[in-house]
C-alpha cells in the first residue's frame, strides 16, 4: 500500500488497482490553432504542465501501473457531436471545421493527437470521448472493471471542464480519485484554484489532491 499526504487527508492506494488517467492532453488544447484557441483562450498557460505530466507518466510506466489516455474526439461525420455542442457560442472555428492542425476535435486529425512527449505506448488504454466526461459514451468503466481498478490518479486539461467532469463521473461509479495539482491546468487560473478546493471540500466529496513530487517520491 502506498500513502500520499494528500488533501484533505491521506490517500492510500495499491499500484495494481490504480490507473493513471491523463485527460485530453492533445494538441487541440495546448497548441495554437486548435479547439482551445478557437474558443478565445491563451493556450500557453496549459503548456507549462507538460514536463510534470511527462515525469509522472514515465514513473508510472516504470512502476508497471495501468495508464489511460483520453482525447476529446468526434467521428468525422460528427454523428456523435450534438448540434448544441457544435453551435454553442461564437468561436472562430467550430468542431469539424478545417483548421491549421486539421479538422477541429475530429478523431485522426493532427490536432487530435496527444502531444508527442506524452504519446501513448502500445498496450495503454486510449479513449476517444465525445463528451467532456471520460465515462460518457465510452467503454472506460468496463475496461477498468475488467482490470480490477478501484483508484484513479488524474492529470490533464482543462481542470474545471474535462478533468472535473471525468472525476465526478468516476466518483459516482465508486472510484477513489486523486487529482495531481501541478499536472492539471485551466485557461482560467481562478477556475483551477476553485476546482481543487471544491474537489477536496466536505471530506473529499469528489476526491483528493496532491502534487506530482509527492507521487514521484512515493513511487521511487
Ligand atoms: N474549453 C475547455 O476548457 N475545455 C474543453 O473544451 N475540453 C476539455 O477540457 N478537455
From TrEMBL:
<dbReference type="InterPro" id="IPR000868">
    <property type="entry name" value="Isochorismatase-like_dom"/>
</dbReference>
<dbReference type="GO" id="GO:0016787">
    <property type="term" value="F:hydrolase activity"/>
</dbReference>
<dbReference type="Pfam" id="PF00857">
    <property type="entry name" value="Isochorismatase"/>
</dbReference>
<keyword id="KW-0378">Hydrolase</keyword>
<protein>
    <submittedName>
        <fullName>Cysteine hydrolase</fullName>
    </submittedName>
</protein>
<dbReference type="InterPro" id="IPR050272">
    <property type="entry name" value="Isochorismatase-like_hydrls"/>
</dbReference>
<dbReference type="InterPro" id="IPR036380">
    <property type="entry name" value="Isochorismatase-like_sf"/>
</dbReference>
<feature type="region of interest" description="Disordered">
    <location>
        <begin position="71"/>
        <end position="93"/>
    </location>
</feature>
<feature type="domain" description="Isochorismatase-like">
    <location>
        <begin position="18"/>
        <end position="207"/>
    </location>
</feature>
Amino acid at each position: 500500500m502506498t500513502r500520499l499526504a494528500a488533501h484533505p487527508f491521506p490517500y492510500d492506494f495499491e499500484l495494481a488497482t490504480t490507473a493513471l488517467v491523463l485527460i485530453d492532453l492533445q494538441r487541440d488544447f495546448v497548441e495554437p490553432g486548435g479547439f482551445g484557441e478557437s474558443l478565445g483562450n491563451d493556450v500557453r498557460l496549459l503548456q507549462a504542465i507538460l514536463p510534470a505530466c511527462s515525469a509522472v507518466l514515465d514513473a508510472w510506466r516504470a512502476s508497471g501501473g495501468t495508464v489511460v489516455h483520453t482525447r476529446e474526439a468526434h467521428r468525422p461525420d460528427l454523428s456523435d457531436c450534438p448540434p448544441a455542442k457544435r453551435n454553442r457560442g461564437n468561436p472562430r472555428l467550430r468542431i469539424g471545421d478545417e483548421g491549421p492542425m486539421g479538422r477541429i476535435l475530429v478523431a485522426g486529425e493532427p490536432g487530435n493527437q496527444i502531444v508527442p512527449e506524452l504519446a501513448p505506448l502500445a498496450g495503454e488504454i486510449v479513449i476517444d470521448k465525445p463528451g467532456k466526461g471520460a465515462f460518457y459514451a465510452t467503454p472506460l468503466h468496463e475496461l477498468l472493471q475488467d482490470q480490477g481498478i478501484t483508484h484513479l490518479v488524474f492529470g490533464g486539461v482543462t481542470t474545471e471542464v474535462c478533468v472535473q467532469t471525468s472525476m465526478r463521473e468516476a466518483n459516482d461509479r465508486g472510484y477513489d480519485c486523486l487529482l495531481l495539482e501541478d499536472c492539471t491546468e485551466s485557461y482560467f487560473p481562478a477556475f483551477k484554484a476553485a476546482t481543487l478546493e471544491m474537489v477536496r471540500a466536505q471530506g473529499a466529496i469528489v476526491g483528493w489532491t496532491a502534487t506530482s513530487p509527492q507521487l514521484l517520491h512515493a513511487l521511487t
